[in-house]
Amino acid sequence: MTTRSNPAESTGARPERQPPGQDWSSWPIYDSASLGFRDHWYPVLWEEQVGRKPVPVTLLGERIALVRQDDRIHALHDRCPHRGVPLSLGRRQFPGTISCPYHGWTYDLTDGKLCGVLTDGPDSPIRGRVSVRTYPVEQRFGLIWVYVGDGEPHPLDDDLPEELRDNTFVLGGRTEIRKGNWRFAAENGFDEGHAKYLHNTALWRLFKVMPAWNKTKVVNRDKWIVRVQEEVHWEAEMPGLGLWTNKRWWKRMPLPDAPGKAKNVNPVIASLDLPGFVSIRLPGILRVAYPNFIHYEWYVPVDEDHVRYVQLMARFETGLKAQAFKLKYLAAVRWLFHGQFTAQDAWMVDVMDAPPEKLYRPDLSITAWRRLVERSSPKVQPTEALDNKR
Amino acid sequence: MTTRSNPAESTGARPERQPPGQDWSSWPIYDSASLGFRDHWYPVLWEEQVGRKPVPVTLLGERIALVRQDDRIHALHDRCPHRGVPLSLGRRQFPGTISCPYHGWTYDLTDGKLCGVLTDGPDSPIRGRVSVRTYPVEQRFGLIWVYVGDGEPHPLDDDLPEELRDNTFVLGGRTEIRKGNWRFAAENGFDEGHAKYLHNTALWRLFKVMPAWNKTKVVNRDKWIVRVQEEVHWEAEMPGLGLWTNKRWWKRMPLPDAPGKAKNVNPVIASLDLPGFVSIRLPGILRVAYPNFIHYEWYVPVDEDHVRYVQLMARFETGLKAQAFKLKYLAAVRWLFHGQFTAQDAWMVDVMDAPPEKLYRPDLSITAWRRLVERSSPKVQPTEALDNKR
Amino acid sequence: MTTRSNPAESTGARPERQPPGQDWSSWPIYDSASLGFRDHWYPVLWEEQVGRKPVPVTLLGERIALVRQDDRIHALHDRCPHRGVPLSLGRRQFPGTISCPYHGWTYDLTDGKLCGVLTDGPDSPIRGRVSVRTYPVEQRFGLIWVYVGDGEPHPLDDDLPEELRDNTFVLGGRTEIRKGNWRFAAENGFDEGHAKYLHNTALWRLFKVMPAWNKTKVVNRDKWIVRVQEEVHWEAEMPGLGLWTNKRWWKRMPLPDAPGKAKNVNPVIASLDLPGFVSIRLPGILRVAYPNFIHYEWYVPVDEDHVRYVQLMARFETGLKAQAFKLKYLAAVRWLFHGQFTAQDAWMVDVMDAPPEKLYRPDLSITAWRRLVERSSPKVQPTEALDNKR
């Protein structure tokens, strides 16, 4: 199997014969980014999860209260500056505001300004002189997106896969908090090696063969890096051990790994002209493109030991086909793929414990991702940002 | 509304227009007193809670075993000096003593001396050469009071509200351990601001209006400081928000805030001549005086994150009136006031998280309390006093 | 009561009149040995507890996966060097190997070598270049013994009580993990003082008197030290307290404490010629010899706060007598002695909290044990050996 990738785009040499060092000192930005990167938009909850009652979330270590006013969701630092009581425990005393439950300090949802201090009267001297930090919020695809960063945010579109900007599609999805640092989740997502072994027991693959092993390279595509198969092996005679294969009489062979090569490719997906079916980009977005749908994962840092795992599946269709996909998603995909299959990933992300580590040939996908982070020089969220009470 | 307080007694200027600094460095003694103050008497349990079996408590970080011998309660450091086993796990082998369950080291309850070492015979050389620390204990109002301090204790009376010394009264009360540092509990107790907002949903206030906001000052009264209302506002038109009031058609207006001003004041309470109904003193005693009864709270430090919350309610009557009060206490006050009402306080004391903080006008009550601590120069319990196992 | 011990063998002077210092600085090796000693064999589980599925254990702070292949048990460091996933979560993909569940790194059970990397093909460059640490394993008495140490292990026999090497016997036993450091468990085992008090409520002693107090010395016997009674007192008039005794009308007096002095002594036990019935040796083995059976305890360090407590009881008989013992063990000894009796010890080992400590006359048994450790100069397991995830 060959590849369409432009060699000049390649992230570099073939995997080293010598495994790289055991720690992460070669990737200093990445090494320090246990809380992720500022100046990005992150999906956190579904719109319908936030009603009149405020909802607390933690994002990149920061405690945030999400509050709905009519059709808009607002995000404020979840700490009243007065005595540190979480605003998410507060009351909706007046429209467009939230009041701390303790002394009725009342904040404007749009700018976080202290617009009324109920227990200190209309002439309260502190009114207007205190505010809580607010966060830019967008609502898109039924999800709430929060910008954690400094200064004016760039458009949400800049942090979305480009095919989700102007096309029509239907979505299914799931969001949950999982144990483990977000980087383990991201590395697991783009990891070339594990699926063939860890997931060969997944129901999702019950009727589809997975390769025994591959030779892979990684190429650049705009903001993304893409895993490209150079060789795919369906069985291997392992010296001293025996035959290693996923082939079974009841399993059929999967489609080509570059989605554009299949027949009947969805035109939106074909237009992406992807040399391989798995790609990743900052601040931690995975795209797995099949000929007729795309699966996405966002690895949203919560704190150093938890990641918000947002899975979306998009089908670029309308009408009956879109409805059929929705039905299929709810009936099967949600449970088999976004459920049992990725629960195997969650298990590994939880028990993983690196560095130290010893990398092997397929881990060139992981090191390519780390190098992408280094050369992108994103703004690291400092660990001091971690709010001490969650 | 004006006040009877002597201006010379006032704790000082009107509240600053500028909020004070955000940390507690202006109150260095207070800032370091996370375990409270030595050389004071503290209420810990009801007498009937300690029977023949020793009971462990933690007080100002020190682990203490309470042991009953006939009608007297004794308090010993809850750690056998031999191998560190808690004496509260021990046996009552011989009258007037407690024996460590491990090797039968036997201590005299009155002075803590090792008066017998069962497993080392009558001539044990270590007998009489080791002792455990004992704590002075008093029994008053059905409560067990323990003195944590050095040298001879002052009389318990010195640490009691003066009206509880020579008068006749009936009591109802509750004691429990709550989350949060004792200082948050004390500040919450004397806090001018929060009741009007936090407690306006309390059943206890279902039929009584609370003010919308007040102007307050704080004056000195012997060992106490007293909150005095200079203005009481029952409703306020908050700019940009709307009307803020607690008035409802079914609620009646409360009595004047200075208990002496009401009609039919109980003579004992009238004799206190209090300029306001809420006062506080060291080492952390709150007094809320109504015309016919007084509610007290003791904020007894357990460790840095827990406070023993002792609530008493006293009515200075005898005979039928006293019996009626007891009934009323058990039927209503215990559940509505000492229960649901102060559970709202417990909630805030738990979630509070300061410093940093930004104080507002009504917080002059809190800063007056902190200043009272500073100028009283109490002996701070060092954090090293914290016994590592509880 | 006198003793047969040779004074030249004694561990030294009679107990000091002055209690020794309160910390452990006199025993620096012991003081640093919170994780025990390397270069020894330790019992961990019963053979039948390890089947085809790997079993994780922690030993001296090291995480170990036990894996069965046919009749043999193998022990490997429970961490795949690739990304730190526990091998005990792995699959038995090929005979004689274990495969990490994540990427199928496959290790030879006998030498820990990476003998196959399923997801990297037959020519994986890393194959044979990585290995996981393996531990020598022996199976004896139905137990799995693991050697934690460096270099070639000495024979398991060297770490067994000598009478268990060449004689025939039947065994009953129990193994469990208990709270508390292994040194507290060992000290509790050889402790002269506590049994007379702590255990005088044990059902096991319901019909047997225990002494009130003893005078004891400690003598050396090869690798062991032995507690020898110089005086045994069955009752004592404690000054100021009263009579202290375990005698009751329904209890019978026990056998002489030196097992060789009883009538009808089992010949194997008689041949040990023990001057007292309790002895201890490195790395933490207790032997309690009765005329007809011997009870053993191994205090196997797990981590700094947990000890694997292995109790064995041996009767040196064959045929019907052996069968009768097995029945008696299952019907009574297991519940009364290895159960309720030593559960009292477990309770104390858990709540013990030393240093600081103040030792008394009978603690010469404990200090003799600590001195035995010092003069044996065992290799201390460094606390850095503690694997951070268990």
UniProtKB/TrEMBL annotation, chains A, B, C:
<dbReference type="InterPro" id="IPR017941">
    <property type="entry name" value="Rieske_2Fe-2S"/>
</dbReference>
<keyword id="KW-0411">Iron-sulfur</keyword>
<dbReference type="InterPro" id="IPR021028">
    <property type="entry name" value="Homotrim_ring_OHase_catalytic"/>
</dbReference>
<keyword id="KW-0001">2Fe-2S</keyword>
<dbReference type="InterPro" id="IPR036922">
    <property type="entry name" value="Rieske_2Fe-2S_sf"/>
</dbReference>
<dbReference type="InterPro" id="IPR050584">
    <property type="entry name" value="Cholesterol_7-desaturase"/>
</dbReference>
<keyword id="KW-0408">Iron</keyword>
<keyword id="KW-0560">Oxidoreductase</keyword>
<dbReference type="Pfam" id="PF00355">
    <property type="entry name" value="Rieske"/>
</dbReference>
<dbReference type="InterPro" id="IPR001663">
    <property type="entry name" value="Rng_hydr_dOase-A"/>
</dbReference>
<dbReference type="Pfam" id="PF11723">
    <property type="entry name" value="Aromatic_hydrox"/>
</dbReference>
<protein>
    <submittedName>
        <fullName>Rieske 2Fe-2S domain-containing protein</fullName>
    </submittedName>
</protein>
<feature type="domain" description="Rieske">
    <location>
        <begin position="41"/>
        <end position="146"/>
    </location>
</feature>
<feature type="region of interest" description="Disordered">
    <location>
        <begin position="1"/>
        <end position="25"/>
    </location>
</feature>
<keyword id="KW-0479">Metal-binding</keyword>
